[in-house]
Specification:
The chain folds into 3 domains: about 230 residues, TIM Barrel (Alpha-Beta Barrel), CATH 3.20.20; about 80 residues, M1 Pyruvate Kinase, Domain 3 (Beta Barrel), CATH 2.40.33; about 120 residues, 3-Layer(aba) Sandwich (Pyruvate Kinase, Chain: A, domain 1), CATH 3.40.1380. It is built from 16 helices and 21 strands. An 8-stranded parallel barrel has the order 1-2-3-12-13-14-15-16, surrounded by 6 helices. Helix 7 packs across helix 9. The relative contact order is 0.12.
Length: about 475
Amino acid sequence: MKRTRRVKIVATLGPATDSVDMIKSLFDAGADVFRINMSHSSHEDMRELQRRIRQVEAEVDRPIGILCDLQGPKLRIGDMEKKTKIKKGDMFRFDLDETPGDKTRVFLPHKEIIESVTVGDKLILDDGKLSMVVIEHGVDYINATVLVGGKLSKRKGISLPDTLLPFSAMTDKDRADLEFAIGVGVDWIALSFVQRVSDVIEARQLADGKAAIMAKIEKPSAISDLDGIIEESDGLMIARGDLGVEMPLEQVPGLQKRILRSARQAGKPVVVATQMLESMIENSQPTRAEASDVANAILDGTDGVMLSGETAVGKYPAQAIAVMARIARQAETAIASRPPDMDISAVGESVAHAACRAAEEQKARAIVTFTQSGTTALLVSKHRPAVPIVAATPSETISRRISLYWGVTPIILQTEKTTDNMIASVERAMLRKKLVKARDLIVITAGVPIGVAGSTNMMNIHRVGE
């Protein structure tokens, strides 16, 4: 039950880890949230994985979050006669002719791209292996000059880092997947292909409060609308792989820091993803560079770090989780116990800030937040206190959602009629789960009247058992 680190670990499930025993092994190794990738999962897969995760959740008696990652639009070229070498300096044409392509042209089954590009826009193919620049376009074609050549084969992906495309972030498949995911009870929806704030608003409307929305930052156009996307999202994922394909890779580390800083100020959790321990897909130990990458994301203030292929198809999934947990624990020893003061506006923020200061000054064992919506737990987490945060909530849904928040251990407690009864109830639960022991000092935040979301207005310093 008890974790000795604050940052959360998101593990992607796949063929290597889709059994109950493997999910339990990943949890025991340190996974807090499980990701279901809808690029490779059917609705029946999702339903069965959700059932298995909930079975493990019951066994370990701790809320576990489920993140459903939507596929998003997949832009691809058409068929090629054969795998063909495209040379730097060549002119290449994209058109609406469905016949197989050759070294001079290929079918582009996305007329919207042709209608949206302008001269000078870049075209990236096959995950960055080839790149071109638009030199001319008409109503049914694009002519481009090859900047980086290579071999091109059928159905390879195409991306346009300089072009704002007239697509929604969600396809019909994504909308169906989102509806099904909510129906089976996932906790977070990761939204791919976010270009603008309206993409997030559409997803929020479809989710209707039944799941939290995590905007994936993977396109340059999202950076231009970052503040609005942060405001409308419940959390963010920095999808560094796709981001590094669509923009110069040397810019990604600085952007990661900027996104983390902005989201932290807004009180929104962030997950850093892609290639964190990728060598562990095949090897039992990561590279030193990968260990430094994970540590630096934690030092930058991320709420969570994510493993993809390492746990979905890797040879050492549980070991990858354990290694990441060890790196996290060590990195956290280098983090200042309290970050610089932030802007404080609402009453709840003031209470959360005061609770963190009091816990530090009184050397409390934990900060306990009574929360209906999870907001108070997030406000306390935002200040990165030196002690664990225990979030007591009557809602199973909220308890699973906040399992992603930095430093937060969720527990489910029924709402009591008086503050004294609430304190007694959480005391018993924390003693049972060995989160505290008798005579430990804890700092409690709550709201009066009891049970009203967003009413946090009270802090209490309490000694367990007294």
